[in-house]
Amino acid sequence: MPRINLLPWRDAERKRKRQEFTAGVVGALVIALLFGLIASWRFEAAIDYQNERNQLLKDTIVEVDKQITEVLDLEQKEQRLLARMDVIEQLQRSRPEVVRLFDQIVRIVPDGVYLTALNQAGTQIKMRGMAQSSTRVATFMRNIEGSEWMGDPALENLENKSAAVDGGSEFSLSAKQTGTSGAPVVAAPPKSAKRK
């Protein structure tokens, strides 16, 4: 029987299989590396895109914060303007009250009493004057109590000036302005009303 030597064929087959295995491993590594690079590139692109979106959101937030600050400033200006308008309206409403108050004072001051000073701070009115007697001061206080525009009279001081020629009394009293339109009355400069 003839003898066939298969060893070179086996060596060649092993060498071929080894080469195929090496080529397969190298191919798999190249493909894995390629997939890794593609995945890395995709992740970096996604991260860059998200960073751009985050930066856009930050810029938008900064812009909105500026707009909110401007809106708050405008609201504060509006509140200040409304407060000024209210004060102006209150002053406009209170303008005729001063006239009514002086008219009322002229009507309630009895004969024999005259005022030397009249001061108003808010709704508080302070009056000083001279009277022929203390009964005239009492009449004046009753007239204040019955007045439409004044009330709550309080006598602060009453001095008899018997040494004076006319023998009168010097008095100081306070009252409150009533019947107002709800607006605070602006303090008037000191004025005097005289009636003999």
Would you give an account of this structure?
A hairpin with an 8-residue loop joins strand 3 (150-160) and strand 4 (169-177). The chain has a single domain (10-196), classed as Gyrase A, domain 2. Helices cover 58% and strands 19% of the residues. The protein is built from 2 helices and 4 strands.
Name the beta content range: 15-25%
Structural class: alpha+beta
Average pLDDT, to the nearest integer?
82
Task: Find the count of extended strands (DSSP E, 2+ residues).
Answer: 4
Spatial separation of the terminal alpha carbons:
170 Å
Task: Give the helix/strand layout.
Layout (H helix, E strand, L loop, with lengths): L6 H102 L4 E9 L2 E8 L2 H12 L4 E11 L8 E9 L19
Give me a quick take on this structure.
The chain is α+β, with helices and mostly antiparallel strands and 196 residues long. The protein is built from two helices and four strands, in the order αββαββ.
Defining traits:
196 residues; alpha+beta; Gyrase A, domain 2; 4-stranded antiparallel β-sheet; 4 strands; disordered C terminus
